[in-house]
Amino acid sequence: MQTLTIEDELTIFTAADQKPRLLAFLNSADDLEINLAKVDEMDTAGLQLLILMKREAAQTGKKLRFVMHSKVVLDILELANLTSVFGDQVILAHNEE
Amino acid sequence: MSFDEEMREALQTFIIESLELLQDMEECLLSLEDGDDPTERVNAIFRAAHTIKGSSGLFGLDHIVSFTHVVESVLDALRDGKLGISPELVAALLPCCDHIALLIRNVVDGQLDADPAISAAGRELIDELQQFLQPGSVAEKAVTVSEKQDILEASGGGTMDSGNWHLSLRFGPDSLRDGMDPLSFIRYLSTLGSIAQLTTIAENMPIADQMDPETCYLGFEINFKSGAGKEEIEGVFEFVRETSTIRILPMDSEIDEFISLIKELPEDESFLGQLLVKSGALTKRELEDALNLQGEGDTEDGGQAAKSKQPIGEILVEQQVVQQPIVSAALDKQKQIKDNKARENQSIRVDAERLDILIDLIGELVISSAGVNLRALETRETGLLETTGEMMRLVEEVRDSALQLRMVPIGTTFSRFQRVVRDVSKELGKDIELIISGGDTEVDKSVVEKIGDPLMHLVRNSMDHGIETADLRRQRSKPARGSLRLNAYHASGSIVIEVSDDGGGLNRDRILEKAVERGLVQHNAVMSDQDVYALIFEPGFSTAQQVSNLSGRGVGMDVVKRNVTALRGRIEVESQIGMGTTMRIHLPLTLAIIDGFMVGVGKSTFVIPLDQILECVALPEDTGDREYVDLRGEVLPLIRLRPLFEIDCEPPRRENIVVVEYAGNKAGFIVDQLLGEFQTVIKPLSKLFAHIKGVAGSTILGSGKVALILDVPSLLEYVGSKNALVPPSLSQHSAQ
């Protein structure tokens, strides 16, 4: 199982750099985990990337989990009502804070 | 024009309109008990109150708003059938009309805030009204659009699971690059209410390779619960509006609310879009966009634009900014407004001054066309004569319709007395019925305005002193209910207004006795009934000890006479003891322009108003110096214009008599030549000549010469006084 920790913000400013990196990671294995603990800033562009990743993973039949959501990420997912859609465990996030 | 001036003008309009509305309200109120189906009238009263309340609000006249609101609530209950029409209710509402009028008049005097004394009076009225309102049932029903939010909130109350707005957001692709983060808008949105349900729509995102991470692909479907109006919600998306698709729709469950709101809108907007905006179902911006779209459609279609113009309602539904049922409701409302407008508002308000200018100009036109006509006659060219003839006919028509503009039926003035009669008869404890006839007789507006006061006096007087109490009436075997008649008709170029009652009539002997006592007439004077009755108009007669217990008229009658005289009118009294009295006021119609008849005396030309002329006959050669002729067995007094105007020249061999009539009196003017009909404008004489009797004004003839217009009434009076003066001087002689 591969794990990627995003250490940067997930915003419009970084989206262009993040996208190829994330896609490359998606292609690296079949069971993947992305650690979002260090995402301290996120906006719609970031959200789009996460949605894209999930969709790509589903289409290619890979497993992709987001873990260790930071509070910022959780807030966004809540707002977009996507937490349940993504179906990831989010309990850890609270400990994280 | 500065803002202040604009406001002042707007306020002026508000005041005029409000007073008119109050007048309508009063009339409708008075007719409520008539027995016909009152629905229309109740609606009219309600609309009037509602409009006044609304406009007062615009000017920040809160005290008027709060008072009118209560009145409106009562009317609303009446409209909904929660209250029945009763004399008590009408009696309670009438003073409220007065009170609103008082408040508005105070605004005229510059008093924009509540006056404590008046407010106290207002509170009493409100207390009285409150009795009609069952507690809580109707008082707080929101009828105005400004309160609509309450309705929306209330309707959604209690159900937390569903929102009342459905928002469908598709953010523009460049939103992110422009620094507009869609999520932050949604966050901001949640400050206005609560998001009941949100779905993120990512279907537009292309496959990974083609996906540009800096382009926004997201959309949101939001179920939103908020008391905010559509406009306010739309405001949230102000900055992304240009590039994004923002749809804000009421939830299906709310559609009924909007439909009922639309139905309750005041009927002053007739554009579909405006109706929807007012109800809150549509925002101004959405309307603008749709209108633009409609405009674009036009230009694309080019020549067929007019035909293919898509209805705005269709566009709105297509663009998904409102739902079909709401548009349908608005369409119905629009149709209703149009129908009502067609019935109610076929008049426009024009400044009286502009009308005067128009009439002046037409007067000049009449004069100069008369000149053209004269010149044309000299040329004897058939073609020219034909065209000038046609022109004269048109000018005549223009003149008539211009004068018609100033004419108003006297009925409105009359119907005002319904209220007076109702109030005064209550006050006096008499049962008096007002019968109005000839209400559609038309009079110049300026005359109508000035006749109100004298009429009021006469009406009050008749009720007070003329009509007896019910008991006395029964004793005299008359119906217990007294009747007072107001009548108007046209007669020989003047309008006649009659105020008659079926009361006790004037007591000739009492009046004469009183007059002798006061030294107004000699005790043995021989006077006609007319002359005796005329005494009641003498100043000072009124202050005499009450003749009134025998129905002698008194108070302020001299003022009535003065007012009528100021209008170039006359007043006469007809009375039969025990049967009643009729006061008859003769007033000139506007005589700004008249049809005249031109006559020549020597080298001078005079104009006699045509409508006062009965006939023209040749002067019998054997008349000599007599002051009368025998006209088919009738004695016709003669007035010789030659000596009267001191025209020095030999009379021609044959002279003519022009027989004139005014207010029932006839006389004959002796003139040299009859020159024919002539349309003319009265130019008032300057002040210098104002004291000259017998001349009503002057006019300029087509030839440029000046002609005097004869004032028939004053000339007749002159004849009358010449004859009447003789007996008193003789009687004086014998008394010495």
Automatic annotation (TrEMBL), chain A:
Protein known as: STAS domain-containing protein
InterPro entries assigned: MlaB-like_STAS, MlaB_ABC_Transporter, STAS_dom, STAS_dom_sf
PANTHER family tied to this protein: BLR2341 PROTEIN
Transmembrane stretches, start-end: none
Native organism: Methylomonas rivi
Annotated CDD domains: STAS_anti-anti-sigma_factors (cd07043)
Residues in STAS domain copies: 1-97
Alphabetized Pfam families for the sequence: STAS_2
Superkingdom assignment: Bacteria
TrEMBL record, chain B:
Reactions catalysed, as given in the entry: ATP + protein L-histidine = ADP + protein N-phospho-L-histidine
SUPFAM superfamilies, alphabetized: ATPase domain of HSP90 chaperone/DNA topoisomerase II/histidine kinase, CheW-like, Histidine-containing phosphotransfer domain, HPT domain, Homodimeric domain of signal transducing histidine kinase
Protein name: Chemotaxis protein CheA
Domain (HPt) ranges: 3-107
Domain CheW-like: 593-721
Keywords, in A-Z order: ATP-binding, Chemotaxis, Kinase, Nucleotide-binding, Phosphoprotein, Transferase, Two-component regulatory system
Residue positions where Phosphohistidine is found in the record: 50
Superkingdom per UniProt: Bacteria
Biological function: Involved in the transmission of sensory signals from the chemoreceptors to the flagellar motors. CheA is autophosphorylated; it can transfer its phosphate group to either CheB or CheY.
PROSITE patterns with a match to the protein in the record: CHEW, HIS_KIN, HPT
Entry EC no(s): 2.7.13.3
Histidine kinase domain span: 390-591
A Pfam family per the record: HATPase_c
